[in-house]
Every structure is written in C-alpha cells, then in structure tokens.
Amino acid sequence: MPNIAVIGAGVNGVASAIKILEHYVNDGKTPIKVTIISEDFTPNTTGDGSAGLWGPYLLGGTSQAKVYKWSKSMHQFLEKIWLSEDAGEAGVCLLPCIRLSTSTVDTVEDFWRDIVYGAVDLSKEQLAAYNKGRSVKFTSGLSFVTYTSEPIKLLPYLMKRFTRNGGVVVRKRITDLDAFVADSEYDVIVNCSGLGSKTLLNDDQMYAVRGQVSRVRANWIFSAVLDESDDGNYIIPNVVLGGTHQERDYNTKVCQNDRRMIVDGCQRYIPGLEHTECLFDWVGLRPGRTQLRLEAERRGRKLLIHNYGHGGSGVTLCWGCADDVLNILLAAKNGSKL
Ligand SMILES: Cc1cc2nc3c(=O)[nH]c(=O)nc-3n(C[C@H](O)[C@H](O)[C@H](O)COP(=O)(O)OP(=O)(O)OC[C@H]3O[C@@H](n4cnc5c(N)ncnc54)[C@H](O)[C@@H]3O)c2cc1C
C-alpha cells in the first residue's frame, strides 16, 4: 500500500493531499495511506489572513504557460464548488473586479483573461472616472468576474473532505528533511512547507514577501478594486484592504506606517471606508521564490516531490499544482522518467 506523507497544512499541502487521496479512493483498486504532517494548521497558515482572491501575483520568473494551466484548474475547481451545495461552507464567492494599471508600456497583465468571466477593457470614460483627482493616472483597466475562496473557510472545508476520506493528520515540526525522508516509514514525501523550505532545504532562492492588510467591517462593498502599481492599494470584499509586498522583509508585526498607506490609499477609492470599523490588522509572509518549485527527486527507494514557492498566488494555484503533484506521483509509480 502506498504510504504518502505531505509536509505542510497550508493550501498547497492540503490540496496536494486531497488530490492524491481522492484519486486512489475513486479508483478503488489500490488502498492508500495519506498523512498530512505539519507544524501548524488553519487558522495559522499563511493563507488564513488572505482574501483568497483568484489571480496570479508575485510569482518571480515562473513560466507563464504553467501559471495559466495551474490557475485555470483552480478556477474550474472553484466553479464546481460554487455550483454545488458546498459553496457557503467552503467560502467560495463570485466577485466583480476592476484591475487598474498606471504602466505607460503595458496594459493590465491579462494573459489569464479567457479564464475569468466577461473580461472587458475599461473605456476611456470609465478610466477617467477612476482618474479623477489623481496625479499619476491609470492608463488601462480591466473589468471581469472571478472567485474569492477565503482560506479561513476553504481550509477547514478541505481538511474535512480529507479526513472524511480516511486522511490522517499529525502535528509535528520536521527539523531535518533528509533524515525524515531516509528514516520515516513513508515511501513518497510531498514537501509543501512554503517558506519553511528556505531552512528545511537551505534554499537560498526563497525569500519572504511581507504582506500587511487591514480587515474592516464594510458589508456594503460588493466588488473588488485592485491597483497594480507598485505602491497600489486593493479593496476586496469581505473586506480586506491592502496592502504591502515587501521583499525579504521578515517582520511579522503590524507596522503603523503601512497601516496609514493602506487605509488612506483605499479611502481614495471608496471615501465611505473612513467610517468603517477596523476588525484587525494582519501580516503574513508570502513564500516568494525566484520561481515556483514543482519537481521530484528520487532518494534511494523514496520519492520526494517539492511543491513550494507560490508567492502571492498560493490560493490561485493550489489545485492546479496539486494536479501536477499527482501526475508526477503516478508517472513515478509507472516507472516513467521524472
Ligand atoms: C497579505 C496576503 C494576501 C494574500 N492574498 C492572496 C490572494 O488573494 N490570493 C492568492 O492566491 N494568494 C494570496 N496570498 C498568498 C498565499 O496566501 C500564499 O501563497 C499561500 O498561502 C502559500 O500556501 P502554502 O501552502 O504554499 O504555504 P503556507 O500556507 O505557508 O503553509 C506552509 C505549511 O507548512 C508548515 N511547515 C513549514 N515548515 C515546516 C516544518 N519544518 N515542519 C512541518 N511543517 C512545516 C506550516 O506550518 C504550514 O502549515 C496572500 C498572502 C498574503 C501574506
């Protein structure tokens, strides 16, 4: 019986574990044991404070073709949940969005525009409305509809789905990955430890991308506005005001200067935010990498699959990356080259 360990209980660990488990359970031919081993679980993973908006972001030099494939798979997964009785429990919401760019060379990055629903460029008149009172003008904008799936709800839903199918959960910190791979009883190990991989693997291509956000009570906002400029703000129902993306900044404390930039910046888009109640401020460290690492290596009889470095898109990519984790595993079992 294949005995598989997935290290990490963030969106990528849980998605990978479910993909593998459900494949074998649905196949019904081979019994399987899948165990998630993690130091922390929801609500204490990186995704738990995020809005979980679908959209590729901060992925270093990761191939655009792969990002397209992985993010499309997640969009289709979210569509399936949205159309099922699980949508509320899994926290999947359909959301109108506006993305705005101040770039004078490019328009809004939109290689994914055929994945989302109803993407159209903003007209000159619409842009002018967003540009009122701004010194740096928006040069292009895109309107579309996509999903949010807040990990604070999505993760408990996925964990339930995992354990309902016989998945095992162990709380434990791995301090020596080489020893764990060599000495543990597992024959396949999937490493989804996010930023933890920096120390576990001594991976100097990994770095934190600090993100600070403010949660406010504003249940009268029903659409997202995202300014793509480097110092741009975003507003995502229910409601997350953002945000920062400070590379190689490991400070997990709330910074008052960042708070001002977030609150003042977002109020410029929606003045009514001035009177909203702040629920809490939150900081997370995105697992940044020069490019996302999804590949396998053989360690003697054992197979070690890496799936980490998802930057600002871990939620957007988790289901598609989990597809590839499963494909790698099945190919290895069939003796194909990795
Ligand atoms: C402010 C902010 C906003 C964001 N907004 C979005 C968004 O709207 N959409 C989107 O797609 N993405 C967003 N992201 C990015 C997203 O949250 C991350 O990319 C994603 O959560 C990474 O998931 P992961 O599973 O790879 O890693 P993590 O969630 O970091 O999980 C890693 C897991 O590994 C465990 N672990 C680590 N080291 C060890 C060890 N040595 N032994 C055992 N266990 C270990 C941890 O306990 C944890 O369970 C946002 C991030 C931030 C900070």
Keywords:
9-stranded mixed sheet, single chain, Rossmann fold, 6-stranded mixed sheet, FAD-dep_OxRdtase, alpha/beta, binds flavin-adenine dinucleotide, 338 residues, D-amino-acid oxidase activity
Summarize the entry for a quick read.
This protein is of the alpha/beta class and 338 residues long. The protein has helices at residues 11-27, 64-82, 87-90, 124-131, 151-164, 177-183, 197-200, 256-269, 314-333, and strands at residues 3-7, 33-38, 92-101, 117-121, 140-149, 168-171, 188-191, 206-217, 224-227, 234-236, 240-242, 246-247, 277-289, 293-299, 302-308. Strands 3, 4, 5, 8, 9, 10, 11, 12 and 13 form a nine-stranded mixed β-sheet that branches.
Description:
It is built from nine helices and 15 strands. The protein is of the alpha/beta class. It has one domain: NAD(P)-binding Rossmann-like Domain (Rossmann fold, 3-Layer(aba) Sandwich). The strands form two sheets. Strands 3, 4, 5, 8, 9, 10, 11, 12 and 13 form a nine-stranded mixed beta sheet that branches. The protein has a six-stranded mixed beta sheet with strand order 6-2-1-7-15-14, with helices on one face. Helix 1 links the parallel strand 1 and strand 2. Helix 1 (11-27) crosses helix 9 (314-333) and helix 2 (64-82) crosses helix 9 (314-333). The radius of gyration is 20 Å and the shape is globular. The structure holds flavin-adenine dinucleotide. Residues 7-13, 38-40, 45-47, 49-53, 173-174, 192-196, 200, 211, 213, 243, 284, 286-287, 308, 310-316 line the site of flavin-adenine dinucleotide (FAD). Flavin-adenine dinucleotide binds at residues 7-13, 38-40, 45-47, 49-53, 173-174, 192-196, 200, 211, 213, 243, 284, 286-287, 308, 310-316.
